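Supplementary Note 2. Why include the ligand at all?

Several targets in our set were suspected to adopt different conformations when bound, so apo predictions alone were not considered sufficient. For every target with a known small-molecule partner we therefore ran a joint prediction. The input for flavin-adenine dinucleotide is given below.
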Amino acid sequence: MTTTAQQPPVHPSALIAFDGLLTEEEREIRRTVRRICDAELRPHVAEWFERGAVPAREISRRLGDAGLLGMHLDGYGCAGTGAVAYGLACLELEAADSGLRSLVSVQGSLAMFAIWKHGSEEQKREWLPAMARGEAVGCFGLTEPDFGSDPAGMRTRARSDGADWVLSGTKTWITNGSVADVAVVWARTDGGIRGFLVPAGTPGFQARDIGRKLSLRAGVTSELVLDGVRLPATAELPGARGLSGPLSCLNEARFGIVFGALGAALDCLETTLDYVRERRVFDRPLASFQLTQQKLADMALELGKGLLLAVHLGRLKEAGALTPEQVSLGKLNNVREALAIARTCRTLLGANGITLEYPVIRHANNLESVLTYEGTSEVHALVIGRALTGEQAFH
Ligand code: TGC
Ligand code: FAD
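The joint prediction is reproduced in token form.
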């Protein structure tokens, strides 16, 4: 038996009239980022993923030219866009590959934001314009081999020695570590946790790439070793005191992921919708089976809910009213649902779902990292649990 299409297919985001929630400027920024991805990045991502190597510095310069690095920051050569526009850029980049969105998150929301929010005027002038152009790359070293979810336990130490600081310790899983010109390194001092700017090439500082990854392969992930790294007093970020320093930066990057993860999910769903219309099983289009349509409907529903949540959180951020707990809510929901969508799409592609000929397994593997970094799903559940009950259950 065959079926005839009753009506033209509706795009998943059109089901919730998503574009109507955006300004013309936001739609234009989204289209621009998509054009760059389609023309210059998407054609190469599967190969970068397969080789486990990505031209991160060249990509930084291109994205800097397009004004996407630190785009939501004001001044110092940054574009100063709204939060939703930044989120949409993350969505389109992650629709190409999570590694590309990671590069932009770490540059703009972690390294640049740390300097922008906590740095001295001199530090801002030295680094932010070059980082906005993508000529200088930054990384953000918080995680250590024994302290990921619990950065308060960090062992990296900054000892004051006359007018200098001397840093020793190891940071791991650091995105862009080996390609960075400057590392924002968080370390314990006698006065609590502080942030430091460590230029690449400083004696005692080394970055080594972490190999054998099966996720985020189109991205650079490194270990940073600091062995008696001597820095002048001016290397310290004067505005950061205590763990709230690095955590304030995480809020920014986590917000980008709220949108970004949905880009990966959307790319999976678009690919799958095309596939099920073409693929015939038992003499009918795969799209015409009820079990297929149940999966598609559930995925469109979760994607739509995620997009609505993302825009709502973006508008709260633009109004200066977004709380860290709300960011946790968005990151937990949207990454968890994006991963579920990628896995379900994988089932609909059958065996074709496991090859790099289609983007689905690449997105699914990437989203495993996204579920873990920037606070694991368990950490975000506990942040929400603490907000709901007033009881902390971390320790
Ligand atoms: P806690 O006692 O709750 O707080 C310590 C101080 O920090 C303040 N604070 C925050 N400030 C700003 N934003 C937030 N989200 C904040 N959360 C807490 C808090 O008010 C307090 O301030 P003060 O002045 O009283 O000292 O801290 P805790 O030790 O109990 O830990 C809480 C917990 C577990 C939520 C936190 O440690 C955490 O978020 N852990 C997860 C670590 C994490 O996400 N690491 C990410 C590393 S970077 C990365 O993964 C990059 S991936 C690449 C990419 O983005 O693409
Ligand atoms: P752990 O903290 O050891 O957690 C292991 C498991 O225990 C998780 O399931 C966790 O949820 C659970 N768990 C932990 N505590 C609790 C608790 N209290 N209650 C219940 N369960 C708990 N870090 C940076 O600083 N900079 C970067 O640029 C960066 N980039 C990254 C890039 C990639 C590709 C990856 C994979 C990671 C990156 N990270 C980076 C590190 C990332 O932030 C950490 O991996 C993450 O915070 C989790 O830490 P962990 O891996 O040590 O896991």
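The chain has a mean pLDDT of 97. The two ends are 60 Å apart (CA to CA). Comparable summaries for the other entries are listed in the accompanying table.
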